[in-house]
Amino acid sequence: MEEACLELLRRASTRLPREVRAALRRALRSERDPIARTNLRAVLENVEVAEREGLPLCQDTGLPLFYFRMRPSRELDPRRAAAGAVRRATGEGILRPNTVHPLSRKNPGDNLGRGMPLVRLLPPQGEGVEITVMLKGAGAENVSRSAMLTPEEGVEGLREFVVRTVVEAGGKPCPPVIVGVGVGGTAEVSMELAKLALLRPLPRGHPEASLRKLEGELEREINRRGAGPMGLGGRTTCLGVKVEYAHTHTASLPVSVNLQCWAARRASVRMEGGEWEWR
Amino acid sequence: MEVKRLSLPLGKEASLLRAGDLVFLTGEVVTARDRAHLRMLEFLSRGKDLPVDLRGGILYHCGPLVRREKGGWRVLSAGPTTSLRMDPLLPSLLPRLGVRAVVGKGGVGEKTKKVMGKMGCVYLAFPGGCGALAAKAVEEVKGVYWLDLGPPEAMWVLGVRGLGPLLVAVDSRGGDLYERARRGKVEGVRG
Q: To the nearest 5 percent, what fractions of chain A are helix, strand and coil?
C-alpha cells in the first residue's frame, strides 16, 4: 500500500487530471484579452513540460492529503503507508519539504510531524481499497473562509459570501480556481465538506438538481466579475463550483469556501482482487 | 503587448517598462520568501552585510523545489509565491536592497507601489503554478544562503536564461494590471 501511495504522489505532482486540462484549454479558447491568453498559454505549456520531463507542476507541492475508502484491516495501516510514501517522495524531490511547526516554524525536512500527513478514512464503497491523494497548495488554502450565516440570510447570503470570497482573493489562489463550498453541519463540518467537494471530478455536477443549478449560477456570477486568470483580468476566474451539504441546526447556516488552484493535483487508485486501476 | 528580452542587472530600462509588456529575463535572480525577508531586515537594521548584493537585481518571491545531486543542486520546480504575504515588509526593504524588479504573483499593496515608483522599480508577475516552466529556465544554482530556514525559505541565487513569460503588472508610473482587472476594463469581460 505504501508503493501505491508513493506512485499516487508521483502522478499527482507531475500530471494534471485530464478533465482539468480540457477545462483550461476551453478557457483559453474563450478569452479575448491578450494578458488572460498569455497566462493560460503559460499554464498549458507548464502542464506539458511537467509531464514530459517528470517535473512537479508547481514548486508548492502543498500538504499531501490522503483519502482512504476501505474496510478496517489488520494488515493494512493507511497512516503508516501514507507516512512512508511521503518521506520517500520528499527524498525523491517529488514533494518540497513544506511542513513546519506552526509556531517555531522549524522544518523537520521530511513533510512529517504532528498530524502529518493528513489521512482521512471515508466509508468504503464495495470490496477493495480506494486511495485518493490531493496535493493542496498554500496559495489557495490561505484564502479559505468560513461564516456562520443566519438562517434569515439564506441562499442569497450564501451567494454573496461565496462570490465575495473568490473575488477578494484576487490573484492569490492562482485562478482559474475550482471553488469548493460546504454548507451546513457545524463550523468544522462545513469546511471539511468544502474540501471534500473538491474531490468530485470537475465535469460532474451535484446529483441533486437544485444544487446543480446553484453551482452553475455561482460559477457564472464569479466569472462575470472579471478577476480572470491570475487575477490579471479575463473571463475565467473559476473552472467550476462544487457544493456539498449536510443538515444543520435550525438556528445555524454554516458556509465555508475552500479554493483549489488551477493545478488541481489529485490522483486515485482502486485496488481490488490484485488489480490496480489508476484514475 | 511589447515583448522584451532583458539581461541582468537592470539599469534605467526597468523604469521604461509599461504595464502589459511581456518580459523574459536572463542573468542572476535571487529568491526570498517570508523568513528570508525577515532576516534581510534584521541584518540591515544591525548594519550587517547581506550574503548577496541585490543592487540592480531581481528579488524573486519563490521557494524552489530542489534536489541535491552529485556536485550540487538541481532545481525541479520554481514558480512564484504570493507577494502579498511579504508586502508589509517591502516598503522599508526594497529601497535598501536597490532592486530594479520584484518577480512574484498576486501583486503588491499601495504603499509598496509608491515606493517602487520612486525607485524606478517594477513588479513582474510570473504565471502562478508554472513551476516546471520556471525550472527549465534555470541554468545553474550559483549559491544558496540561510539553508537553516529550510530549503523553501532559503535564499537561492539562480542563473536563468529567458525566465518568463513575465507580465509587467505594476510599472513605475503606477500602471497596474490588477487594478485594471478590478475595474473590469478587460477585453471580453462585461464591466
A: 40, 25, 35
Q: Under an 8 A CB cutoff, do A59 and B1 touch?
A: no
CB contact (8 A) between residue B188 and residue A171: no
pLDDT per position as a tens digit, A37-56: 999 999 999 999 999 999 99
Q: Which of A231, A262, A239, A238 is nearest to A35 (CA)?
A: A231
CB A242 within 8 A of CB A179: yes
Per-domain boundaries in chain A: 2-16+57-137+264-278, 139-260
Chain B from 121 to 160: CB within 8 A of any A CB = 125, 127-136, 149-153
Is B191 contained in some domain? no
**Chain B, nearest residue to A262 by Cα:** B129
Interhelix angle for A2-14 vs A78-92, to 10°?
50
At B95-133, the pLDDT tens digits run: 999 999 999 999 999 999 999 999 999 999 999 999 999
Number of Cβ atoms within 10 Å of the Cβ of A153: 15
Q: Is residue B187 part of a domain?
A: no
Complex ipTM value: 0.94
* pTM: predicted TM-score of the whole model, two decimal places: 0.95
Distance from CA of A177 to the nearest CA of B (A): 11
Handedness of CA A139, A142, A143, A144 (dihedral sign): positive
Q: Which residues of B are catalytic?
A: 37
Task: Name the amino acid, one letter, at B147.
Answer: L
Domain that holds residue B84: 3-182
Q: Distance (Å, rounded) from C-alpha B107 to C-alpha A67?
A: 34
CATH number at residue B74: 3.20.130.10
For residue B125, CA distances in Å to A32, B16, B81, B116, B170 come to 19, 17, 10, 15, 9
Q: How many folded domains does chain B comprise? A: 1
pLDDT confidence band for A218 (50 / 70 / 90)? very high
